[in-house]
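Notes on consecutive records. When two proteins share a document, each keeps its own sequence and its own token line. Never mix them. Below: protein one.
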Amino acid sequence: LLTIGIISMIYYEFSDSDLPVNLIYSLLILGLFVSVMEPLDHPSLSDRVFGGLAISVLFLWVRLGMIWLTGDSTVGFNEVKFAGTAGLWVGFDNIPILMIVACVIGVLMVSTAGIYRMVATSNEKQIVSTASFPFSPTLGLSMVFVSCLQFYGFF
């Protein structure tokens, strides 16, 4: 179910439409259900709730800081809510791993898209840059990866 939700989220992010709030809340409720049903060796419910709150506050600070610095909200409120959902899925202790994996996936996706655009526009002698790239898909893919590592007992 998590993978289906992440695929739906990636579709909405790249189709230039808003991410449905119901999808984020469905993943949040599913994460709470999974955290209650998992064995005791995984992060506890309190660890997961604290992780969700901590990463939401971090993303909210980034959002407010970008609004203060640039006057534009480059980090959408959906990213703040989805970051909280991701923190709930992986727990407080695994947030650094979640963010590192999400950033690596993001760099790979952006560099691949940049190379593709350079090759596609090489005949026109013009390089087109993308104004923005959504972070939610990389965070979602990272959430699936870290959740799988947790399930198989890597941490």
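Protein two starts on the next line and is unrelated to protein one.
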Amino acid sequence: LLNYLFGCRFSTSTGRCTRGIYAAVMKIDHPNYDKLMILDTEGLQSAEKDDQEFDRKITLYCLAVSHIVIINVKGDLHLPLKKLLEICLVSLHELKKAKVGTPDVFICFNQNPRPEKDHFLQQLRDVTGEILAANPDAKDAAALLNLDADRIQAA
């Protein structure tokens, strides 16, 4: 996805190919910036790795250092991914108290037979509700997933 969107040259293959985080720095023509750093993380919640602590750390890191986050989900948001997002967004809320910015989030629901976005929006509302139920003060963190249909792509 990043190769297609940004012209990066991250290696691709079937199955797991990125280990940890890969980065690409690109020169851009923008009035406020001259370079763009793109981070590509390995797939989360892999059956072959099964390391929830690593998944939490890599997700929170990317949320904390990024201006834009693109989440590429295969199929629907399943329960373990929902829980991962909840934990990381609440942690990001705590980091925000230390002046860490919050990213703009976009989600691509990949390889899903449902073209309608309402189903996916409801899944995100469910996660937002869980975040607010667990921590009512985390409204800014929950707002990261309060997306309109423009920020969701079903493919």
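For the record: The radius of gyration is 16 Å.
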